[in-house]
């Protein structure tokens, strides 16, 4: 990072520095010089400095004391100190306190000082990236469960797209589209109610893309002021606004080569939408308080609970930005509209939490699955996951999770489906006998499906003997769907 945006300050009152200063200038840094501590303090009030090189025996003040002050007031400035051999005891304590990055010995070697400055600035940059990546790492959870997707009982196939688990046709179609979209560089807009898996989808898209060796960084845009959001994404120079005590790289540059996920994109102001549009058009990043425009190659994924089309119609979201963001559009259906996913997700979460809590749970009862399938899940998959985590926590080793473990809201849901409105009664012109038989067939099929073709359990529920049920299955030609 040696550009004219990087400012070095040399505090020394000797002429022997001229060669060092010209080497640093040649390396592309903007080099400021001052002779005294007082002058240095005045300069750093006006200019954002990245690195200071200071002599220890300045004429009016001890260099180590000055660096101690800088450590307190501007900890982000890298401090290098030139040390003479005879150091008084109090100077030594001060230079320890100043937490100097490295001491320089005389005679001065300009090339070596140039290399030292470069290395120190790179180390600071790496530190910043490390902090950003650690934030990302906090979210990642590499459970080995995802490596081996398992087909479930009774032929119900469980699929995976990275860490997404599903079985329904609508999710299969969506994941197939997502797998194709992932390999392109187009922005992707992910829409869906809360808890439907938008963030999980974003991770899957990144890890399926060619950018998967570069960072995936997250920004929640909800409830952020424009200034804060601008500085989080585009970065800022120290002093760009009140409270900007250090430089900030910004996610767009930190994720260069990778992906940035903008969550709750519907919340950004009209004026921020303009900045974002500019970035999407030409990849330009201008940190707050800086005149220099930089570039970053980042793929944008954005998510929202509120359909953007609706906001565009209301004039709250720019149409041009909406079109830019939806290079591909992924609309995740609510869980109540893809009920086939409920059993596979439920089993997946039972396995996950019984392993996590080290509890030997045998499985999930049909009665619970029925109630789940009749429940509306306003909190979608997150609500299902929380419910199962709670149920596993309440269960004992060797138990099935059953309705006894359900939370009150779901426990009061009826375990049977209301079949009066099913297709069994919908054909016109049928005789009463035909309608009754059709309803009986439908009820048998429903009970068998809910008990996963355990004929003894289905017979018990229907008040039939096992043989009686088997006869009816034969009579009505009911077949187990694979
Ligand atoms: N298909 C799925 N397979 C496995 N887990 C899922 C699936 N969908 C969602 N989850 C889990 O449900 C929880 C909520 O998912 P996520 O945070 O991605 O939802 P979201 O749509 O981003 O929600 P919000 O709008 O509230 O931010 C997470 O714990 C996630 O792991
Ligand atoms: Mg989310």
Outline the structure in words:
This protein has 482 residues and is α/β, with parallel strands linked by helices. The chain has 4 domains: 7-126, Rossmann fold (3-Layer(aba) Sandwich), CATH 3.40.50.2300; 150-333, 3-Layer(aba) Sandwich (Rossmann fold), CATH 3.40.50.300; 337-411, Helicase, Ruva Protein, domain 3 (Orthogonal Bundle); 423-475, Arc Repressor Mutant, subunit A. Helices cover 44% and strands 13% of the residues. It contains 19 helices and 16 strands. The chain has helices at 18-26, 37-46, 63-73, 89-97, 110-137, 169-182, 198-207, 226-234, 251-254, 270-282, 308-313, 319-325, 341-356, 366-374, 380-394, 408-411, 432-450, 455-462, 466-475; strands at residues 7-11, 30-34, 51-55, 78-83, 102-105, 159-161, 164-166, 188-191, 216-220, 259-263, 284-285, 294-295, 299-304, 328-331, 363-364, 400-401. Helix 1 (18-26) links the parallel strand 1 and strand 2 (30-34). Helix 1 packs across helix 5 (110-137) and helix 18 packs across helix 19 (466-475). The longest helix is centred in the first third of the chain and has 28 residues, at 110-137. The protein is elongated, with a radius of gyration of 32 Å. Mean pLDDT is 85; it is low at 138-155 and 418-428. Residues 198-199, 263 line the site of magnesium ion.
């Amino acid at each position: 990072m040696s550009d004219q945006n990087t400012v070095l300050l040399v505090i020394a009152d000797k002429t022997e520095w001229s060669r060092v200063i010209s080497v640093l200038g040649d390396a592309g840094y903007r080099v400021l010089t001052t002779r005294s501590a007082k002058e240095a303090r005045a300069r750093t009030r006006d200019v954002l400095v990245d690195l200071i090189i200071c002599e220890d025996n300045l004429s009016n003040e001890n260099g180590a004391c000055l660096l101690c002050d800088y450590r307190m007031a501007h900890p982000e400035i890298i401090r290098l100190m030139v040390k003479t051999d005879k150091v008084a005891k109090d100077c030594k304590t001060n230079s320890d306190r100043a937490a100097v990055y490295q001491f320089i010995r005389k005679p001065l070697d300009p090339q070596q000082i140039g290399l030292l400055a470069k290395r120190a600035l790179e180390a600071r940059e790496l530190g910043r990236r490390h902090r950003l990546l650690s934030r990302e790492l906090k979210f990642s959870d590499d459970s080995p469960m995802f490596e081996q997707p398992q087909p479930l009982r009774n032929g119900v196939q469980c699929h995976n797209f990275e860490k997404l688990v599903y079985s329904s046709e609508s999710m299969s179609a969506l994941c197939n589209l997502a797998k194709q979209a992932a390999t392109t560089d187009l922005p992707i807009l992910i829409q869906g109610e809360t808890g439907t898996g938008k963030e999980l989808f974003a991770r899957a898209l990144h890890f399926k893309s060619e950018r998967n060796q570069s960072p995936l960084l997250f920004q929640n845009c909800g409830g952020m002021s424009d200034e804060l959001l601008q500085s989080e994404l585009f970065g800022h120079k120290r002093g760009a606004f009140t409270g900007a005590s250090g430089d900030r790289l910004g996610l767009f540059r930190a994720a260069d080569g990778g992906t940035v996920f903008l969550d709750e994109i519907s919340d950004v102001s009209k004026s921020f939408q303009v900045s974002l549009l500019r970035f999407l058009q030409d990849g330009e990043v201008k940190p707050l308080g800086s005149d220099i425009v930089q570039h970053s190659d980042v793929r944008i994924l954005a998510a929202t609970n509120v359909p953007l089309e609706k906001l565009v119609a209301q004039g709250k979201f720019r149409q041009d930005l909406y079109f830019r963001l939806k290079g591909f559009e992924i609309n995740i259906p609510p869980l109540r509209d893809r009920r086939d996913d409920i059993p596979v997700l439920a089993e997946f979460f039972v396995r996950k939490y019984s392993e996590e809590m080290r509890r030997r749970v045998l499985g999930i009862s049909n009665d619970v699955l029925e109630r789940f399938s009749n429940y509306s899940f306003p909190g979608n998959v997150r609500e299902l996951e929380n419910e199962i985590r709670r149920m596993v926590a309440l269960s004992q080793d060797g138990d099935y999770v059953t309705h006894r473990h359900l939370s009150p809201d779901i426990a009061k849901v009826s375990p049977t489906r209301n079949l009066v409105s099913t297709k069994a009664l919908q054909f016109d012109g049928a005789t009463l006998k035909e309608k009754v038989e059709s309803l009986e067939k439908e009820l048998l099929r429903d009970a068998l499906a809910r008990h996963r073709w355990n004929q003894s359990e289905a017979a018990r529920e229907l008040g039939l003997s096992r043989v009686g049920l088997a006869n009816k299955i034969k009579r009505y030609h009911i077949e187990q769907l694979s």
